[in-house]
Design brief:
alpha+beta; seven-stranded mixed sheet; 28% helix; 33% strand
């Protein structure tokens, strides 16, 4: 597959701007959204603005808002951290914070747009992510998108009061090139 598109039929990727930060904080402070994430919790507008300012020119990460194509309402956020241009790899993160949108394929569209961007625009070879072993929604989404589970990391992460297991998953450029799933979003 050549090229990529930041716009899907239902959602689009918009590079993170200061005007998106209030929504980001609202989503991240929602206990149900936060439950399967490992972000600073709780967080504040002030901290998030400081984080945003500090990272504007950071080439090791890229952050997007997911907006509905029809209304431009923000429904979530995602991006890549630890971008390593030498090893051509990066770690993906994603959260759909608008819970009314869960379970309707928006998450899957979000993964696809991010992956298309990483391979099509950044020219990476490997994308990986960590996923709590209890995060059945995310597991179903990545399974249906052909991600490979590299292993279960036992007691790997302290999350909201307990040590938890998490999976390490990856998706390679060669798998993306040969995948029909990613061609339509
Ligand atoms: C994980 C997340 C991105 C998935 O997005 P989503 O829009 O809810 O998921 P999708 O609708 O694209 O599809 C996920 C799959 O899970 C299924 N699903 C929906 N609700 C579910 C539930 N409660 N339990 C298990 N599976 C569920 C969907 O039916 C779909 O499977 P299918 O292809 O067999 O129909 C989103 O739920 C989210 O942001 N959660 C909170 C933060 C988070 O966990 N981020 C990921 C960290 S790795």
């Amino acid at each position: 597959m050549a090229g990529f598109n930041l716009k899907g039929e239902r959602i689009e990727l918009v590079l993170l701007e200061r005007e998106h930060l209030n929504k980001r904080v609202e989503f991240l402070n929602d206990p149900e959204v936060q439950k399967t994430l490992n972000f600073d919790y709780p967080t504040s507008i002030a901290k998030t603005e400081a984080w945003f300012s500090k990272n504007i020119l950071n080439s090791n990460r890229v952050d997007f808002a997911f907006v509905l194509s029809a209304t431009l309402d923000i429904i979530g956020f995602g991006g890549f951290i630890n971008i390593n241009y030498r090893a051509k790899k990066a770690e993906l993160y994603i959260f759909i914070g608008e819970k009314a949108c869960w379970g309707q394929g928006f998450g899957r569209d979000g993964y696809k747009l991010l992956v298309n961007y990483a391979f099509g625009e950044l020219g990476l070879d490997r994308i990986y992510l960590y996923q709590l072993a209890e995060n059945s929604r995310a597991i179903k989404a990545t399974e249906s998108l052909g991600w490979f589970t590299e292993g279960l990391l036992r007691n790997d992460i302290w999350s909201h009061g307990e040590l938890k297991d998490q999976y390490l998953l990856s998706f390679l450029r060669s798998e993306w090139v040969n995948s029909d799933f990613y061609k339509t979003v």
